[in-house]
Amino acid sequence: MNVVGKSVPLIDAGAKATGAMEFVSDLNLPRMLTGKILRSPLPHARIVSIDTGRAKSVPGVAAVLTARDAPSYTFGPSKASPDWEILARSEVRFIGEEVAAVAATDPDAAEEALSLIKVEYEELPSVFDAFEALQPGAPLARSDKESNLVFRFFVEKGSVDQAFQESDLIIEDTFITNQVYQAYMETTCCVAAPDSDGRLKMWLPTQAPFICRLTYSKALGMPEEKIHTIQIPAGGAFGGKMESNLHIIAGLLARNTGKPVRIVNSREEDFTAGNPRVPMRIDLKIGFKSDGTIHAKQVRIYAGNGGRTVHAPGVLATACYRIDSLYRIKNLRNEGLLAYTNTVPTSAYRGFGNSQMIFAIETLLDMAAEKLGQDAGDLRVKNAYQGGEVTVHGWKITSCGLPECVEKVKSAASWTEKKKNKIPGRGLGLACTNHVSGNSAFFPDFHGSAAMVRVSREGRATVFSGEADTGQGIRTVMAQVAAEVLGLKIEDVLVAPLDSDLVPYGLGTWATRGTVNAGKAVQAAAGDARRQLIEFAAGLLGAEAAKVEMDNGFFMAKDNPGSKIKFSDVCEKAVYQRAGSPIIGQGFFVPDTVTPDPVTKYGNQSPVYPFGAHLAEVEVDQETGRVTILDYHAAHDVGKAINPIQTHGQIQGGVAQAVGWALMEDMVTAGGKVQNPNFLDYRIPTFADLPQVNSLLVEPVDPVGPYGAKGIGEPALNPGAAAVLNAIYDATGVRIKELPASQEKVLRGIKSRVQGGSQGAGKN
Amino acid sequence: MAGWVYHRPSSLREAANLLLRYGAGARLLAGGTDLLVQMKEKKVQVDHVISLRGVDGGGTISDTGLGGLSIGAKVTVGALEESTLINSRLPGLAQAASLIGSRQVRNLGTLGGNLCNAAPSADLAPILIAMESVVVIYTLSGERRLPLEDFFLGPSLTVLGPGELMLGVEVPLPGQSSAAGYQKHSIRKAVDIALVGVAAALTMGPAGLEKVRLVLGAVAPKPVRAVEAESILTGSGLSDREIEAAASAAARECNPITDLRASEGYRREMVRVLTARLLSQLRKKFA
Amino acid sequence: MRQTVPLQIEVNGQEYSLTIPPDRRLIDLLREDLGLTGTKEGCGAGECGACSVFLNGNLVNSCLVLAVEASGGKVLTIEGVARGEELHPVQESFIRNGAIQCGFCTPGMVLSAIDLLRNNPGPTERQVREGMSGNLCRCTGYGNIVKAVLEASGAKK
Question: Do B189 and A688 lie within an 8 Å CB cutoff?
């Protein structure tokens, strides 16, 4: 292959390297106003009154809006729990909730107007923790709800209780995954402008512009077709840039003022009013046979939703049962409880619940391996599903490279030697993961993707797709596929702007679905264009289409190689002879997936399933508890890497986020208020906190994926936290089950082992 | 950030008069790395910003004539890090400077700003105090000097009175057979605030340490001298036992807080660990 | 009447003469007044490095500099790095080595790399990591950036 499978720069790398590429926060439209949001300072309160009189008279202020200026119904991205208001009507449910919005000719006027809005609150009792929120007598986080339970997930298979009785070893423990922040470098923002044709135009740096539009049209009381969305590649997303109330508010202000409005979250606002990871308390119990096979699994998860519902229900469900399709588990009881809390609404963050659960189970498996006297890697591989199997939930594992991933990282890390010759203070930790490349449960109405490929007169191609780029490089993958199918150089392929007027309906990039779904769709569309070109060329060559080949920039008849036409000549003639009509290829990919049964949860949820294994080598400073990552190996079954250098980049980026989560990231809250809404005290890894990560690709070439490809985005993060904490255990004997493994926690564990001799300090 | 008046005095006298005139709502602006962040986070009420850009002087590092160095308040932290004079005569100070923030922040932040901002966790004060620095203050009625040790009163509080500005510090020449250094413990390996900072300046004599100054940062409202630790070390040969005893003493002599960065207990323990490590590190210079 | 101050400043070799409010930050001057949006704001508090520019030859966070304080000075932003169509070797190395994903940190990152190599033409990996630690990236995990910088320096990894 000429383009697919080659490491090529992103098609917009040049524009990014020179600063020429415009992000939404760079857009500058004539007469554009600056929008700002007044946010609740209290976690739970009744709104007694709002006085905007003085604010409205600040020079330069074009609008001051409250709930009175917005539709009065609730809406939201969650069908089961549509509990959003554009601006709080009578009650606020988290610090940061939107109470009023201002648009002004300059930021200072907007800021001044905000400061003059007088809101009278009557504080109500709050609850901040999911477990506490579900105890009898807990205060209601929302007075419009009867209870704090947002959603309960439950599925049971086999005979769990009997299976536990039959187990030779049972390990039961509680794991806590804390709330962390995606920390993308570009904060949440939007530009919205009323269009001359009566529609509302919205520039959205989001992962899913079409899905957003569904919610926004309900929110604003406008038909979908009246909202014209332009997706601009975002400055990072990682799950946190799906639907945002900020976008809706920008739309409301634009409609109200008749002018373009830009709203950009400050970093502090983005911390306090973004969509961080769903915090979970995971009570996990697994029964093993003496040979190490998992015989029974029981889990109950308490998860924090925040004050309104974004995607936490899906996250919780995923946490409950996705790993049942990683390891062969036939007897299981999974329960998840999602609770309202008076905190910032939680949502998707790379891993979508699977990362939380992987932390729990990969830690528990480490504990089991030790108790059973088995190698940590062998224990995983023994239990893992293999290619060709169908899992307990009906997931069709079309290929599985997990054993090779485990083998590769162990070999790269010299696992066996290092385990034999332990250096004090150093340790190795292993963890595995599965994931999806698409999720039929997330958007039941359709799965898959569609594309169009237009070939121009000069023989260049343009790809039209609704799948959004947020820096992960999906536009480049699509260009590579189109180039490969059409025999073009990648420089001759453009990807059309993601304009809802032009591109096919797209679900967007989440659930690691981009490469597989968009890749297959573009492959089909480019294939259709290629067929049309071959037919036309056949006509020109006077040959049968079936006997015409396309190779190296030429069309030729198989049985008459001397007779050939240049690709670009065919394109030109095709366009001219059909009065300017371009060649338009259309194609789509409908994956072999079904929406899972609502009760049994049974059904193939993703076209293919990626797998991975991480192995961290750490050194722990025994006097300070500080953990240094000496080495890190991450092997991923990616099916086939369409763009290897970018695949490596995705793996390394996921590892970095996992290391941050493992060691230093924590949204510290008190009374529902984020105490560290800045990069000074919310620490993400810098250059100095990581080594060169050894990313390794395993390519079983999946029969379903485009050119055999699977996704990589989320699995790249999933196993990291457990790998690091398992390594800390190996180095110190301290078992930490609550993230992050801060240096204080590690040191406390070390000291208590020295003093008390018991195993680890557990959670604190 | 709107709503304050910008002044650019062209002399110290003018700057001092502006400070006097506008009182508590006036702030001096040098590098801006502290002030701009505080204003953005609305941690201070500022009505007048008095820029030092137009005031000549204060930007040099020079010999005091007695081998020591005179460092102007406007010298950037980056310049401290890279100065050949400082690296050759006061390497501990260059090292402390290199641990502050990021390269970008070091290119803006100044010695004067770092000291006058008087954050308990600031990284320049401990080593400068350990090296017996003297701070030089401009007043309208003439200069005054005092030991840097006496300059700090508490978090964000110094002895600077109305109408006074810091001109710089004078650091005496370390004696023969001296060593000084600074260790900082933070959460991240780079670009982080000190949870604990320990500085030491030692002078070795024929019968053991003749002079010991041990200064702890980030573990009290202002930098503190660990005097009990110092007395354990004075006259000692810096044996392991003495280092351990001094480190334990230092851990008792501070008053750290529990905040979202670390607990009191952890900070205290880090004082012990860092003190021991710093002394062991400096001991090598006397070998 | 709000206070304004005169400003003379050279940006990417071009002289500008403006009147601005004193609280206008250098980053706002560049992005809003001069339309040079290549410099990005990631945090506004000097903690992420996305807004890095050269001011009088020194790498600084433009969100921490009042524009008026830079009056009379010379600024170099990402827009001034390439010479027309010819990219800087650091930019080319970034592109070639997969050191760019979303691109938001990239302008600041490129300038930081240029600053590092100017002061240390043959850095070790560790020196690159420590020297550039004032620039945060959330997409790449830094690995390909380190490779790109080492390659641009001509050093073998």
Answer: yes
Number of domains in chain A: 3
Report chain C residues whose CB lies below 8 A from the CB of B33: 46, 61, 64
Residue in A closest to B272 by C-alpha: A623
- Give chain B positions within 8 Å (CB) of C64: 31-33, 36-37, 104-105, 108
Alpha-carbon span A611 to A584, nearest angstrom: 36
Please give the pLDDT value at position A707.
97
CB contact under 8 A, C103 and A15: yes
Cβ-Cβ contacts under 8 Å, C131 against chain B: 103
Question: Are A217 and A357 found together in one domain?
Answer: no
Domain that holds residue B46: 5-51
pLDDT digits (tens, 9 = 90+) for A419-478: 999 999 999 999 999 999 999 999 888 899 999 999 999 999 999 999 999 999 999 999
B177 min Cα distance to partner chain A (Å): 30
Distance from CA of C2 to the nearest CA of B (A): 8
Residues B105-132 as b/e (b if ≥16 CB within 10 A, e otherwise) read bbbbbbbbbbbbbbbbbbbbbbbbbbbb
Give dist(CA A461, CA A488) in Å, integer: 8
**Which range of residues forms the domain containing residue A40?**
28-124+199-237+241-266
Pick the CATH number of C89-152 from 4.10.320.10, 3.10.450.50, 2.30.30.30, 1.10.150.120: 1.10.150.120
What is the fold, at CATH topology level, of the domain defined by C5-79?
A: Ubiquitin-like (UB roll) (3.10.20)
Residues 99-118, chain C: which have Cβ within 8 Å of A? 100-107, 110
Q: Are residues A532 and A647 in the same domain?
A: no
Where chain A has pLDDT below 70, the residues are 756-764
* Contacts C112 to B, Cβ<8 Å: 103-104
Closest Cα of chain A to C85: distance in Å?
Answer: 10
User: A–B: how many Cβ contacts below 8 A?
Assistant: 41
Smallest CA–CA distance from C43 into chain B, residue: B37
> Among candidates B4, B65, B62, which has minimal Cα distance to B29?
B4
Query: CA nearest C108 in B: which residue?
Result: B104
Kind of pairing between the strands at A694-698 and A627-637: parallel
Measured between alpha carbons, how far is A270 from A655 in angstroms, rounded to an integer? 23
Chains that touch A (3 or more CB pairs under 8 A): B, C
| List of chain C residues whose C-beta atoms are within 8 Å of the C-beta of residue A26 | 31, 37
Decide: helix, strand or coil at residue A524.
Answer: helix
Helix (H, G, I), strand (E, B) or coil at B49: strand
Provide the CATH number for the domain around residue B36: 3.30.43.10
Q: Which residues contact B22 (CB under 8 A, 6 or more apart)?
A: B47, B48, B50
Q: Are residues A507 and A648 in the same domain?
A: no
C21/chain B closest Cα distance in angstroms: 9
The answer for residues whose C-beta is within 8 angstroms of residue A78's C-beta and 6 or more apart is: A309, A310, A311, A313
Find all residues with CB under 8 Å of A79, minimum gap 6, and list them.
none
- C78 neighbourhood in chain A, CB within 8 Å: 18-19
CB spacing of A185 vs C97 below 8 angstroms: no
Per-residue pLDDT tens digits for B23-52: 999 999 999 999 999 999 888 999 999 999
* Nearest-CA distance A264 → chain B (Å): 16
Residues A229 and A80 in one domain: yes
Angle, helices B240-252/B264-286, rounded to nearest 10 degrees: 150
- B165 lies in the same domain as B68: yes
Contact by Cβ (8 Å): A652, A690: no
Q: Compute the distance between CA of residue A63 and CA of residue A474 in angstroms, rounded to an integer.
A: 38
CA distances from A562 to A487, A568, A616 (A): 20, 18, 59
Q: Is the pTM of this model over 0.95?
A: yes
Q: What is the CATH number of the domain that holds B272?
A: 3.30.390.50
